[in-house]
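Today's session is about reading a structure prediction critically. Students often jump straight to the picture, but the first step is always the sequence itself: look for stretches that repeat, for charged clusters, for runs of hydrophobic residues. Only then move on to the predicted structure, which in these notes is written as discrete structure tokens rather than atom positions. Here is the chain we will use throughout the hour.
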Amino acid sequence: MGYILLSVLLITIILCYLEDYIKRYRFFLYILMGFVMVLIAGLREIGLDPDSENYEYSFHHYYQSSEMGMVEPSFTLISAILNVFTDNVHLLFLVYAFLGVTIKLYAFKKSLQCIFVPMMLYISFYFVLHEMTQIRAGVVSALFLLAVYHIAKKEKRKALLLIIVGSFFHYSSLALLPTLVFGNKDFNRKENIMIALLIPLSYLIYFGGISMLLNTDIPLIGNKLAIYQQAMEKGKMTVNIDVFDPVHLVSVMLFYYTLYFRKTITAFNENYNVVIKIVALGLFLHTSLAFLPVLALRISQLYCIVNIFLFSGIVYTFKQKWMGITVLVLLSIFQMYLALPHYGLGDIVRF
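Below is the predicted structure for this chain, in token form.
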């Protein structure tokens, strides 16, 4: 699996540099790469990732899993339909991979001028996590990327519908509702400072212990948080958040970098103001909710899927486009080999 992922990433990197020269073939290659990613995620070996065995059990016992509140309605419905034809869980993986990958690729094409740069970032940052581990959240994140486009276009009803549909795949989608209040208007210096101060504020909340006063009995997901907490106490699950983790700090630094070059990037991506606000909120939640590591990771990962849009803008901060692409290539390689072990997927990058 390590060789396959590396090969896909390398091909995508090459396409990033060639995109302006292969306009006639780029859409075909884009679809082809997406098809390959669906197959990789859908046909992966059971046990390769931390959750596939649990999904296999839930697939075979979908009624029981539904009654216990372990899965959302969509999982039960899809499992019930597929079980009529086969008991092979790979068909379930293929369905979720198809939804997660294709909707994300559609969102990239709809929102950005370039398509292979966001694909490269997606592969290195989120593909394994969302399409091979958190497959239900993977569909939610895809729908959210599409919702961001509609939020920026002031089509809030369409965005709301996408988030609600996402809640049928994973209840955490409802945590994305606050993004509907964001607008895409250019913000003034005062607003710029307020956004920049969100991240330092999150550290003040974390170290000040203010977060401990929050109520953890959250509707719909409170029961799941309790299950995760019990698993952690029994040693079956280990989830910790290091607020000074290198991966997180790199994201913070790149956020401030893109915030500084916001006007430059906005000339190439008119949705960038909304993207910055969403990423700022995601980074804020990651640190301020670190006392609830499972909740903090789930929510921040959903919000920060928009990092793909944010980081893609770095290309336009260089006079020579290839220099910006090279920076993102190095970032992608760094991210893939540093972050995967955090998700319990270190074996994937061991060749």
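Discussion point for the tutorial: The first helix runs from residue 2 to 18.
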